[in-house]
Amino acid sequence: MKQGRKVIWLVALLVVSILLFMMYNTGNNLDYVLSRRGIRLATMAIVGVSVAFSAVIFQTITNNRILTPSIMGYESIFILFQTLIVFFYGDKAFKVISQQENFFYAVLLMLGFSVFMYFLIFGRQQKNIFYLLLMGMVMGTLFNTLSQFLHVVIDPNEFSIVQNFMFVSFAKMNVKLLGIAAITLMGTLVLTLRYLKYLDVIALGKDHAINLGLDYNKLIRTFMLIIALLVSVSTALVGPITFLGILVTNLTYELFKTNKHAHTVWLCSAVSCICLIAGQFFVEHILSFSTTVSIVINFVGGLYFMYLIWSSRKKIS
Amino acid sequence: MEFEKENKLIFQGLVKEYGKKRVIDGLDGKIADSRITSLIGPNGAGKSTLLSILSRLLKQDGGEVSFMDRSLPDYKSNELAKKLSILKQSNQTDVKLTVKDLVAFGRFPYSKGRMTDADWQKVREAIVFSDLEDLTDAYIDELSGGQRQRAFISMIIAQDTEYILLDEPLNNLDMKHSVHVMKTLRRLVDELGKTIVIVIHEINFAAQYSDHIIAMKDGKIRYSDEVNNIIRPEILKEIFGIEFDIIEKNQKKICNYFNL
Questions:
Q1: Among the residues of chain B, which ranges form H helices?
Q2: CATH number (domain holding residue B176)
Q3: B95 contacts in A (CB within 8 Å)?
Q4: Domain end call among B105, B140, B160
């Protein structure tokens, strides 16, 4: 079958990009290079999978293919949290609070934010999911502005600590966080896999989902929590990277005409890992670290986004 | 009267407000079993709102819906999905689905995504029942509006519920497809004993194919009776505010409301 061949190509491409990333121009100190690259590879795999899952789920529950969870302000709240820690503790911040503790609090904060947003919208009055998006955008902007205000106030040296969290980088080598992030991701995935079949129904729209016997509001709440967990994993590891979701989900939908989320999420994870690994390879070996992977992805993603708008415009007219 | 043999779907004192505007105002009534009931009335009369409340898509601000001697909120959503189905009017979707996949979703309340042979059998029956065999593997976003509407109705048939609620199933359909849909609904009632409630705008389709009519205006039920007692010039004039001329042919009534 044609689809089956495409899947094989995708897997082959993934394997090739991994091998290339690991083996290209290793030099003589093989052990050192391989372990360093292995950590980066593991980071990219974890981030790739969480970005793919969160974006696919988010796009399905909003019935919109050009959104990613970044619109909900999850990443802004993370940055604000880091800024606040630095604001209060100064340059001693990460001696007082360990990386793991920091991660733990950030996850709790994002989950709390999810629940708060949910009850704000679905609590007493029945508002629809677009109110949720609107509120998310407004809150995100608020958090961003607060962070910016604090950035201006704090000491420039302390700001450089915060800056570390604001830009995506796979060179951070957060070995301590890697384990805890992997466990969080695994746990979340186990939970998610049980709910994937409901996403197929939710994709039909709210009314159909209720007609077919889903407890719609409860499922949306569950998925919001799952998204919060996934976003905190990727954000804590490398920074605000969920914009990647828009590129990889649309590529996946373009390549594979499947409606089964049980397939889509894994295909999208593979696409997402390939993008990250290839982007990182490009940055390391061709641009020799003169730029970051987020700029490469943003550039390619931006071009692709323009193509999306262009082609949907042609479809309408 | 004969149509009142049993009523499993009953509503009392239903109220729904959007802001300060009361769209339905204290509705009492019941749905006749194994019949087609048409909800008619001018735009903004509250027909779709009533249908949405009866099918739990919308929560009312007052009053109660009782279904098979239990209050509607007492049901688990999945349990209700095996007894009562609803199809709203706008069914645009950009999901890449074939007709067969879509109809298979009708079995979700039973299969939870794991389709058994019996489920696929129901899907095939539903496709045959709605005359869609030729389009089984067609993608729904490539179908015409009428075909897509029939595909969604086919999904509802596969859901195999005793009660079927449809919000303007004839919206955007040409005459041929409208007649086709109404005949399918008629067969569901006559051959399989289903109970169907539809919101409908074209008065002649209501007059020709339904057994019972609930006429609404300004958020209230004005009349609820058998078809022949509703299709009268004075009643229709009161509901719609225009003149009607009723022509009788083969014991069925046809309403003319043009150039009067």
A1: 47-54, 77-81, 99-105, 108-111, 117-129, 145-159, 175-192, 203-209, 227-230, 233-240
A2: 3.40.50.300
A3: 203-204, 259
A4: B160
Computed over every residue of chain A, the mean pLDDT equals 85
Contact (CB<8Å) A211/B108: no
Helix H or strand E encompassing A260: none
Q: Which residues contact A300 (CB under 8 A, 6 or more apart)?
A: A247, A279
Question: Does residue B156 share a domain with residue B100?
Answer: yes
A211–B55 CB contact, under 8 Å: yes
Count of domains in chain B? 2
Domains and CATH numbers, chain A: 1-23+31-314 (1.10.3470.10)
Residues B65 and B104 in one domain: no
Q: What is the CA A292 to chain-centroid distance, rounded?
A: 17
Given a cut of 80, is residue A97 above it in pLDDT?
A: no
- pLDDT, averaged across chain B: 89
Chain B contact set for A260 (CB, 8 A)? none
Lowest mean pLDDT among A44-58, A80-94, A105-119, A166-180: A166-180
Written as six digits, the tokens of B254 are 């046809």
Quote ipTM for the complex.
0.89
Confidence class of residue B3 from pLDDT cuts 50, 70 and 90? very low
B140: nearest CA partner in chain A = A204
